[in-house]
Amino acid sequence: MDVNIIYNVEHEMPLGIPIATYFYLTGLSAGSFIISTMAYGFGMVKFKPLGKIGVVMATCLLMIAPMILLIDLEQPLRFWHLIFYLRITSPITWGTFLLSLYPMNCMVYGYFMFKGDMKKTKIFGLIGIPLALLVHGYTGFILALGKARVLWNTAIMPPIFLVSAMVSGLALMILVVIIKDFILQRGKEPNRDLIYALGKFLVASIALDLILIGMDLSVLLTSTTEAYRVALMLLNGPFSFLFLGVELMAGAVIPLLLFLSPFTKRWIPAYAVASVLVMIGIFAMRCIMVIGGLTLPLS
Amino acid sequence: MKKSEVKKKKYGMVIDLRRCIGCHSCSVACKAENRVPIGVYRSWVKMIEKGRYPNVTRHFLPNLCNQCEHPPCVINCPVQATWKREDGIVIIDEHRCIGCKYCLASCPYNARYINPLIPIVQKCYFCYHRVQAGLDPACVEVCPARARIFGDLNNPEEEVSKLISKHPFQVLKPEMGTFPKVYYIAADLDAMDPFAGREEWT
Prior knowledge:
- The structure holds two protein chains of two kinds.
- Chain A has helices spanning 17-40, 50-72, 81-84, 91-115, 118-144, 157-184, 192-222, 225-236, 240-260, 268-295, and one strand spanning 3-7.
- In chain A, helix 4 (91-115) packs antiparallel against helix 5 (118-144) and helix 7 crosses helix 8.
- Chain A has ten helices and one strand.
- The two termini of chain A are 19 Å apart.
- Chain A has a single domain, classed as Up-down Bundle (Formate dehydrogenase/DMSO reductase fold).
- Chain A is an all-alpha fold.
- By secondary structure, chain B is an alpha+beta fold.
- Chain B is globular.
- At the A-B interface, strand 1, helix 4 and helix 8 of A face strand 2, helix 3, helix 4 and strand 6 of B.
- Strand 1 (3-7) of chain A pairs antiparallel with strand 2 of chain B, so a sheet runs across the interface.
């Protein structure tokens, strides 16, 4: 039947790029923290050179991230309401505490690491891992509990955010090692084994990320009409370039080829290009999730 | 029902679309009563046309905050700036709201907006200041066709209770589990479907 809308009110999108950037930075922070604890918490000696730089990155990124949240508030000077008035059902309230505990723990962990107190480093590293997972998992919950938006309201949102945090964190670490060993300290013997090991982890995380995206899409395609429409929006609509082209092609498939093909497997520039592509892809994923989810009309 | 529950008020609204003439008086009255700035709306009327000549009809759908029984905005507000009163009206404490806009993102009805003049979240609250004074909300008062009826759903003698007891009614997005307290009589499914008539989505 022909239906024409004669008059309707279009609403401004409440959240946008700042929130996507915030999700991206927390993801990077959680990812680099977990890699930092691989050496000092779990004793994987190979990753030892990343311990210190990982915790510095994690702390710095998690200082910028809540600033973006504050700027995005309509009343930034009332931020202290978050601490004094709590609603335990709201994921933002959980985030208030996670976003204050996690950087504090990062700093304590980093302090003991730089002092060389290995026992305490290990303890705070192990405390930090659940915190890092929660800090990023809760951002997934923020979207998952926004039940009006069909793209967000799935149980897979927290795991997909965690896995993509690992992906972007590993890519960031590869870039950091390349910049450190091959550009800043050219005279020293570069640590190729470390980059290859990180590359292997990155391949595994990208594969897991692709599996989760596939699960999400297949459920969206077969669920309610709204879900079907949002899946079409990603595959064949306004977000198809960002989703298929940037997130999947540039952010996952091309890096996988670069890491796995025999010609580029041992070639450091290919690792650098692949890591940059992965980070762009994950940022695209955050933007698609936040903005794409809000694009769906509600009235 | 227990006696104590009967005394408790539960406000609701019935919008009888057999009577609605699509004059937008409710939108104008709401703007004037609540000083809603340009560009944002607490109450608006969606209009659609459907069919092919000569079988064409026009349908209206007045939208406002549904004052949900289980409001997602209240569940998600991190600072308790919005809550459901005992009489069922969902209100906002404008001095506590930090403007995180999470409620805007979680409302399935797009009922909330940021006031561009004072950056605060606002929405329809059934003109609570008028209801307190014993008056009807502005949109109900002004409706020339008497399509909007407001009252206490717990009182069986009120017109709202009679209407929803006697007539088949619809609510918006029942699948959300929000249990809205704005009931529509004779609402058109295509008007209620956010995607109908949007070519880019079908």
